[in-house]
Amino acid sequence: MPVKTFDFYEFLRPFGKPLLGEIAAPSPEIAPFPYGHAHLAGRLKGRKWIVGSSNHGCYLGSYEYEKRLLFESVVKEGGVVWDVGAHVGFYSLLASILVGPAGRVVAFEPWPENIVYLKKHLYLNRLENVTVVEKAVSDCTGEAWFQEGSCRSTGHLSPQGTLKVKTIRLDDFVQENPALAPDYLKIDVEGAELAVLAGAEKLLADFRPTIFLATHGREIHRRCCDFLWARGYTLSALGSQNLEDSDEIFGLAPENP
């Protein structure tokens, strides 16, 4: 008895060209991914996420739960968010939805594999208010060595790195793109926090963005707090943690510096 083969694309044809086109003809600059898509929850409900691109909590709704709730409550429609250390784009997607069509998101990410997933997530969700900057943010504009971590989310600038990447100071970026001056800064850069802040002194003074800062190590955490306090920021931790014990800083700028 002959075996009848199953043609997946023929099966999809009755459901319409848009669905078939999305699967059969992905973005020309990004290859298909083998694990399929999941749908996100919460404020990102219905948005697509590539399974295997990052922490499963992203699409299960548990990823950085307290930080995400704070981010959702603070970021307002029409604002400009800079996602420094965008990884594969979870907060870039969330920010894009929160600020809406009138707002803008700038996603800074240097690691090539992360950039591919980041762009794919933007493409899959038809988000057009996000600008991707393929550079590492630091205290100087130029080039530096980047070291891959044990997973895609833990890469960082290091003299022992294996990949040379372009770097940018936030002060330089805002000088070149004044229309994109940030209302909110989300920073997660695996130990390079002080370099990011040092390269943003004028930006912090001129535009006073609200800051969501992940810190890595007690000494870096203390020095970041001192840096922001010296510039008039009011700092707090997430949830019930004490600021000194937290690895997340929420910073509000002074209203009248």
Automatic annotation (TrEMBL):
It holds the Pfam family Methyltransf_21. Residues 83-234 form the Methyltransferase FkbM domain. It comes from the Bacteria. SUPFAM superfamilies: S-adenosyl-L-methionine-dependent methyltransferases (SSF53335). One of its GO terms (biological process) is methylation. One of its GO terms (molecular function) is methyltransferase activity. Keywords: Methyltransferase, Transferase. NCBIfam families: fkbM_fam. This is FkbM family methyltransferase. It comes from Desulfobacca acetoxidans. The lineage of its organism: Bacteria, Pseudomonadati, Thermodesulfobacteriota, Desulfobaccia, Desulfobaccales.
